[in-house]
């Protein structure tokens, strides 16, 4: 497999604070990696290192085979970056913003205009092309920002929290555009605090917290491996909840309950028939018996709060 | 008649990966961007122009009588000082503009492009020099209307502009450092006015140093603004030229030696 982004042991500290602690990342070409983590987890630091804006204190990273430190110039030819804030010139029109980047990259006036107009068209900004960007809505700014990062036809793009602060509609539009870029074969590293975003867009997810990787895998495997499914049992007669709880505990070893349900984490799918049999033996009529898959939200919370390495002094600015 | 329509290039054909271009063209593009900004907010021209015009007006009508007896006499003295003030204030604009790019993230975008790292700086300095020319033109035009006269030779304007540019370029490095370090454009503005305005007034730009207390005269004498104001006076209305110009160039050299390494270090250091 060819990797578009490969990082090993990336570390970075700012003074006393550790922003990244030996982070490994691998992104196969043409896929989307979601770098997921709460505020201050080190997501932006990772992006800045990969996009050649900051040098790592330890470890190394390659983008399409080029070292981000030793061959920074070469890497810059291959990447596009959109940071956390829309990096556009508000005084310029949409088309001028894109032409500015195109001209910097060495396109002629005519070429840069053609590329700018094409991109604006594709991103639904054609009508606003000649308007000053300060009149743009938040969503339009983000789209213009993303367009600016695509002017140079990058093969790898870094999106640092691309939809933070957008309303659901604008967010959906941006997602659509990102999917379009993936369909063109672009490799994307996307940071986000939103699980739904990672679930929607990413092929693989790396969860980082306090500078360290705490989990990785596809959205599906993360749900399966980290969050275990829950078994729920609701007897018809809630007076029999106590008995149900006893049975569940005998089979599964633990239970939690509320006024209607007895619940337990499922470690072994074999417990389901066992519970059913025992309930039947006891003559308890069951109104509902189900296994619920964990949501990514639960996985995320579990990962970022139950970090076993949390005793280590790792905080980020 | 039938024509064969040329096959349209697919709209989604990736843009050809651009060639590398020289730092000059890239700087030109950065400067172009700033001049296009003016197209969209022409009030910038007014903003930059209004300061010198207001000062000329106030000096000519409010201060002239008390300072020199006549409007003409005082303008002959003060206009060179006003040119220096404009220069210093435009340099503050460099810092504010750069800081805006830094805080908005545009600066990071530029740093992630395969372009020369200094092009964004050179382009900005070049564009701000155009603004400086505009503000000096306005200032001179208005002063002449109010009886200021170049009593040496008109062609002296050329070496004057060159010297003003050298001074502005040297001072820019300090401004860029402020622009890189400050946390917001408003802070830069406050800093600029806190430093730049006293700098122009603690000089002989508007008042002859002889009238000041001795300790202040000492400060005035080593203030680069004094040196530049004296040089411009010599060039436009007569008086010694060689000495103040030499002093100005030395001051510029000191500014460059002090700030270029500091500024470049701050510039290349990642944030």
Automatic annotation (TrEMBL), chain A:
Residues 5-235 form the ABC transporter domain. Pfam families: ABC_tran (PF00005), DrrA1-3_C (PF13732). Keywords: Antibiotic resistance, ATP-binding, Cell membrane, Membrane, Nucleotide-binding, Translocase, Transport. It is found in: Cell membrane. One of its GO terms (molecular function) is ATP binding. SUPFAM superfamilies: P-loop containing nucleoside triphosphate hydrolases. It is a peripheral membrane protein. It comes from the Bacteria. PROSITE patterns: ABC_TRANSPORTER_1, ABC_TRANSPORTER_2. Belongs to the ABC transporter superfamily. Drug exporter-1 (DrugE1) (TC 3.A.1.105) family. This is ATP-binding cassette domain-containing protein. It comes from Streptomyces cylindrosporus.
From TrEMBL, chain B:
It is found in: Cell membrane; Membrane. This is Transport permease protein. It comes from Streptomyces cylindrosporus. Residues 1-16 have a biased composition (Low complexity). The chain crosses the membrane at residues 49-68, 125-148, 154-178, 190-209, 248-267. Residues 43-270 form the ABC transmembrane type-2 domain. The keyword Transmembrane helix applies. Residues 1-20 are annotated as: Disordered.
């Amino acid at each position: 497999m060819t990797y578009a982004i490969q990082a090993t042991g990336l570390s970075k500290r700012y003074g006393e604070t550790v922003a990244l602690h030996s982070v490994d990342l691998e992104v196969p070409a043409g896929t989307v990696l979601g770098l997921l983590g709460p505020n201050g987890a080190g997501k932006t630091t990772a992006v800045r290192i990969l996009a050649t804006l900051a040098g790592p204190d330890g470890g190394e990273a390659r983008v399409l085979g080029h070292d981000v430190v030793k061959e920074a110039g070469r890497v810059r030819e291959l990447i596009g970056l959109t940071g956390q804030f829309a990096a556009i010139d508000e005084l310029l029109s949409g088309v001028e913003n894109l032409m500015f980047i195109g001209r910097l990259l060495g396109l002629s006036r005519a070429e840069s205009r053609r590329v700018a107009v094409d991109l604006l068209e594709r991103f639904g900004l054609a009508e606003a092309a000649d308007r000053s960007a300060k009149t743009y809505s938040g969503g339009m700014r983000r789209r213009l920002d993303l367009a600016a990062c695509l002017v140079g036809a990058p093969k790898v793009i870094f999106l640092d929290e691309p939809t933070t602060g957008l309303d659901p509609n604008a967010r959906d539009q941006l997602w659509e555009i990102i999917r379009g870029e993936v369909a063109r074969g672009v490799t994307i590293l996307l940071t986000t605090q939103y699980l739904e975003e990672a679930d929607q867009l990413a092929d693989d997810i790396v969860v980082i917290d306090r500078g360290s990787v705490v989990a990785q895998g596809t959205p599906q495997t993360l749900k399966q491996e980290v969050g275990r499914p829950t078994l729920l049992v609701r007897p018809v007669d809630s007076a029999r909840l106590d008995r149900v709880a006893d049975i569940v505990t005998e089979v599964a070893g633990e239970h939690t309950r509320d006024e209607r349900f007895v619940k337990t984490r499922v470690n072994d799918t074999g417990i389901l028939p066992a519970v059913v049999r025992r309930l039947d033996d006891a003559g308890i009529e069951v109104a509902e018996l189900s296994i619920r898959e964990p949501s990514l939200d639960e996985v995320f919370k579990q990962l970022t709060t139950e970090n076993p390495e949390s005793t280590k002094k790792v905080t980020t600015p | 008649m039938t024509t064969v329509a040329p096959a349209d290039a697919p709209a989604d054909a990736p843009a050809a990966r651009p060639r590398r271009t020289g730092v000059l063209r890239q700087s030109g593009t950065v400067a172009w961007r700033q001049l296009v900004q003016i197209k969209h907010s022409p009030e910038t021209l007014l903003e930059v122009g209004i300061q010198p015009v207001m000062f000329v007006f106030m000096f000519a009508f409010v201060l002239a009588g008390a300072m020199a007896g006549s409007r003409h006499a005082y303008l002959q003295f003060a206009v060179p000082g006003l040119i220096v003030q404009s220069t210093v204030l435009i340099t503050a604009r460099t810092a504010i503009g750069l800081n805006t790019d830094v805080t908005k993230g545009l600066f990071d975008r530029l740093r992630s492009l395969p372009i020369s790292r200094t092009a964004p700086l050179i382009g900005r300095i070049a564009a701000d020099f155009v603004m400086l020319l505009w503000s000096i033109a306005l200032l001179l035009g208005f002063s002449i209307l109010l009886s200021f006269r170049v009593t040496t030779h008109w062609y002296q304007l050329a070496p004057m502009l060159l010297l003003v540019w050298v001074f502005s370029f040297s001072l820019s490095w300090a401004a860029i450092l402020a622009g890189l370090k400050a946390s917001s454009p408003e802070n830069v503005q406050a800093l600029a006015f806190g430093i730049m305005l006293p700098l122009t007034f603690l000089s002989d730009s508007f008042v002859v140093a002889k009238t000041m207390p001795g300790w202040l005269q000492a400060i005035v004498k080593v203030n680069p603004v004094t040196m530049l104001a004296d040089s411009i006076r010599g060039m436009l209305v007569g008086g010694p030229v060689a000495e103040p110009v030499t002093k100005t160039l030395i001051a510029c050299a000191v500014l460059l030696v002090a700030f270029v390494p500091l500024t470049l270090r701050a510039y290349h250091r990642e944030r």
